[in-house]
Amino acid sequence: MERMVVTMPFTANDYEKLHQLMNSSPEIRELLQKLLDSQQYTISKISHEVRNPLTLIYSTFQLIESSHPETRDFSHWSELREDIEYTISLLQELSAYNNSEHLHLSTFSAQDFLGQICLSFAASCVDTDIEFSSLIAPDLPSLTADRLKLHEAILNLLRNAREAISSAGSIRLEAVLKDQMLQITISDTGCGISPEYLDTIFDPFVTYKPDGTGLGLAIVNRTITAHAGTVTVTSSCGKGTSFLLLLPIT
């Protein structure tokens, strides 16, 4: 009888332990880096090879729908569209997760950077029952980071906060400098997260949303970790959630 091998998923804590192990000696770091690079190349290759034909299928799907509007009334047509869109989204997030540790660093004003994010997100809350506020310390120094990846990580947390609020509520972003660390807090008054889920929400492919891919918070965690920072969460069911990002100022 063929034996089935069951493997446990690689968690966010495992990645932290792996990075600690890599720093223990140059030889171990080199070997593990080769292993990680090989894994990332394989994932990137598979994602690319699947995404290309799927994009062509979706383009053909849209062409059929445009030429024959009556297809929108076909049984299961909308479900088919949603399935294709979900798969494309999953592949895009898988690619983002795979590349989240590859940083393109630049130095920029932390205050201006966060101000632009807040301005953009505030616009998305117009005509809703969500109140968004921010408090960004005026004395923030310049930050050396991957501007694009950090922008997406913070915006991801803000979008999650918005989705956690079913009707009326509030979201707040605060940023201060403390002990040479940029401290960013994103809090909301949404539904909160059950205590039993808090230990696994940063693990890849773990989601508690019906339409989630399980990669959003995993990307956030890997991006912040790649910047030598940390991200932690506290939450209370029915009261809200707060994410704390700590980034070193270099």
TrEMBL record:
Q: Which UniProt keywords apply?
A: Kinase, Transferase, Two-component regulatory system
Going by the entry's taxonomy, the superkingdom of the source organism is recorded as Bacteria
Residues of the Histidine kinase domain: 45-250
Report the EC code(s) recorded for this entry.
Answer: 2.7.13.3
Kinase among keywords: yes
Nucleotide-binding as a keyword of this entry, yes or no, is no
InterPro entries of this UniProt entry? HATPase_C_sf, HATPase_dom, His_kinase_dom, HisK_dim/P_sf, Sensor_HK_Regulatory, Sig_transdc_His_kin-like_C
Its Gene Ontology molecular function terms?
phosphorelay sensor kinase activity
For this protein, what reaction is catalysed?
A: ATP + protein L-histidine = ADP + protein N-phospho-L-histidine
Listed name of the protein: histidine kinase
The protein's organism comes out as: Coprococcus comes
Lineage runs:
Bacteria, Bacillati, Bacillota, Clostridia, Lachnospirales
